Amino acid sequence: VQLQAFGGGFVEAGGSLTLSCAAPASSFSGTQMGWYRQAPGKQRELVARISRTGVRMHTNSVKGRFTISRDNAKREVYLQMNNLKPEDTAVYYCNSDPPGYLGVWGQGTQVTVSS
């Protein structure tokens, strides 16, 4: 199963986007989930994770601007991104944390932030 992320787009600096990802596995509610991103020429990095009980972690570069959430009934995970910066430009992916428990990497969704 590929984990598909949706909701990317092109925004100006300071704008907002909300990403979503559906993970249809029955074990979703018991799995820690993460949002990752990969900028051109860089390695994929974890930007936020949410435990099965809703405990959140956001990497320092996005703290205070991004918020990860989940809906276990819908088996979906979200990333609300506010005050976007050009350095947030990347392809964003969702997966379990660590990756691989619920499916393989999808194509991701492109987020482009203009200055």
Kindly describe this structure.
- The chain is mainly beta and 115 residues long.
- It is 0% helix and 50% strand.
- The chain has no helices and 11 strands.
- The protein has strands at residues 2-6, 9-12, 17-22, 33-38, 45-50, 56-58, 66-71, 76-81, 90-96, 104-105, 109-114.
- The chain has a 6-stranded mixed beta sheet with strand order 2-11-9-4-5-6, with no helix packed on it. It has a 5-stranded mixed beta sheet with strand order 7-8-3-1-10, with no helix packed on it.
- β7 (66-71) and β8 form a beta hairpin.
- The protein is globular and about 40 Å long.
- The mean pLDDT is 95.
Low-confidence segments, given as residue ranges, are: none
Count helical runs: 0
Largest sheet: 6 strands, mixed
Number of strands: 11
End-to-end C-alpha gap:
36 Å
Helix content, binned percent: under 10%
Q: Can you list the strand order of the major beta sheet?
A: 2-11-9-4-5-6
- Sheet-strand content, in percent, reads over 45%
The chain-level mean pLDDT equals 95
Shape: globular
Topology pattern, helix = H, strand = E: EEEEEEEEEEE
Query: From the helix content, strand content and strand pairing, which structural class follows?
Result: mainly beta
Radius of gyration: 13 Å
